[in-house]
């Protein structure tokens, strides 16, 4: 299947031509059916240019539901068993979309609030201003083993950590309220006349976050409603492949130019190195390679000599032969039956206590270099 392409067409038809179970991640920013009527005027009298495009018009709820069912059904078919899908929407559409996703058997794993730092005001002051949009993150089935780069998400979380704390090394679990500004200024694509190209261009930062945390390098990312190709730009920058579908020839034309100028930026976020699983090594191997010594004493942090190391990596604790984790729990006299032994045990090197976790790190480095 071709990748890194823009397909100019109707996504319902184009999805039906794609291979089943072929896509790792989908981001969909469908028409919201905003139902805007008449002109919106700012307080100072200028006209507000909202989303009144033909592509956002539907004649009835039934028509919108049928359209939503069809494109979501197409997405479900092409999504891999362990893939995931993000759909963004506003109050006008997200409930309809969510209900149809559930009918189709998608399994919702989160709904995320994109809290806009600079929302459009409610000009007339007749109700609250809409300062957020909602994203639904879902998998194909309840059992899908979807990608979630948990530690990468922590690295990207500045929503609940202040800059000062972040710079001093504090990281917190990412939550479901994200703060981004709406797309504005130089980021907004312009046509050759210098006019705003698209009414609903999404901030690239938002897409970069989604792609970084829910896919891996070289994965295939699909966006059935490409618009200005924000998803493709974020995917290319992070070293993912993309397929973008968009029915407007004009958006495809400018989107292609946009994508041609994006370059892959190889960094720890793109590679999700924070989430890489460390090399698995056993105590037995460490003894064989002389990083640990059969018969040596294992100490607690306070210098208390507790158990001796057996040939197979277990500990001799008062003549009981047990693993390092159960032995840590016994030695610490906790209610738990096991503690992580690498957090508790020390050996002596040059008369100094050295954590076996440090010894394991050195051993891993030795094995990787070998
Ligand atoms: C909400 S906008 C997407 C904006 C995009 N995320 C961006 O950042 O620029 C929806 C887009 O879907 C396109 N569209 C609407 N119906 C479509 C369909 N059936 N097939 C393909 N594209 C469609 C519209 O032309 C519009 O550009």
Could you describe the 3D structure shown?
The protein is of the alpha/beta class and 370 residues long. It folds into two domains: 5-275, 3-Layer(aba) Sandwich (Rossmann fold), CATH 3.40.50.150; 283-369. It is 30% helix and 21% strand. It contains twelve helices and 16 strands. It has helices at residues 11-17, 61-78, 94-103, 150-156, 163-167, 204-214, 230-237, 249-260, 268-271, 283-288, 324-331, 356-369; strands at residues 5-8, 23-28, 40-41, 47-48, 79-89, 107-116, 132-139, 177-180, 220-223, 241-246, 297-299, 305-309, 315-317, 320-322, 346-349, 352-355. It has an eight-stranded mixed sheet with strand order 1-10-9-2-5-7-6-8, sandwiched between helices. A four-stranded antiparallel sheet has the order 11-12-13-14, covered by helices on one side. It starts with a strand and ends with a helix. The site of S-adenosylmethionine (SAM) has 19 residues, from helix 1 and strand 10.
């Amino acid at each position: 299947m071709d990748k890194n392409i823009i397909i100019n067409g109707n996504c319902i038809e184009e999805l039906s031509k794609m291979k089943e179970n072929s896509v790792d991640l989908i981001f969909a920013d469908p028409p919201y059916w905003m139902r805007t009527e008449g002109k919106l005027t700012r307080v100072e009298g200028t006209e507000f240019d909202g989303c009144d495009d033909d592509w956002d018009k539907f004649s009835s709820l039934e028509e919108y539901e049928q359209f939503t069912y069809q494109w979501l059904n197409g997405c479900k078919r092409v999504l891999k068993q362990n893939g995931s899908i993000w759909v963004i929407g506003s109050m006008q559409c997200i409930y309809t979309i969510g209900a149809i996703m559930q009918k189709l058997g998608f399994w919702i794993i989160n709904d995320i609030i994109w809290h806009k730092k600079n929302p459009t005001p409610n000009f007339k002051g007749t109700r609250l201003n809409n300062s957020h949009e909602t994203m639904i993150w879902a998998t194909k089935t309840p059992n899908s083993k979807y990608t979630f780069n948990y530690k990468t998400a922590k690295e990207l979380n500045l929503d609940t950590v202040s800059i000062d704390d972040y710079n001093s090394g504090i990281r917190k679990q990412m939550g479901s309220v994200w703060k981004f500004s709406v797309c504005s200024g130089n980021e907004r694509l312009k046509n050759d006349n210098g006019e705003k190209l698209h009414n609903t261009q999404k901030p690239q930062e938002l897409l970069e976050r989604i792609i970084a945390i829910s896919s891996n390098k070289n994965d295939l990312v699909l966006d059935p409603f490409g618009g200005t190709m924000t998803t493709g730009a974020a995917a290319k920058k992070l070293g993912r492949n993309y397929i973008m579908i968009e029915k407007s020839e004009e958006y495809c034309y400018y989107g292609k130019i946009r994508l041609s100028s994006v370059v892959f930026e190889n960094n720890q976020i793109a590679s999700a190195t924070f989430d890489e699983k460390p090399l698995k090594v056993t105590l037995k191997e460490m003894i064989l390679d002389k990083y640990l010594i059969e018969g040596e004493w294992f100490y607690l942090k306070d210098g208390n000599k507790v158990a001796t190391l057996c040939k197979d990596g277990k500990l001799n604790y008062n003549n009981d032969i047990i693993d390092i984790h159960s032995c840590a729990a016994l030695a610490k006299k906790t209610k738990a039956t096991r503690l992580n032994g690498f957090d508790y045990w020390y050996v002596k090197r040059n008369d100094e206590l050295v954590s076996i976790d440090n010894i394991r790190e050195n051993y891993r480095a030795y094995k990787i270099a070998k």
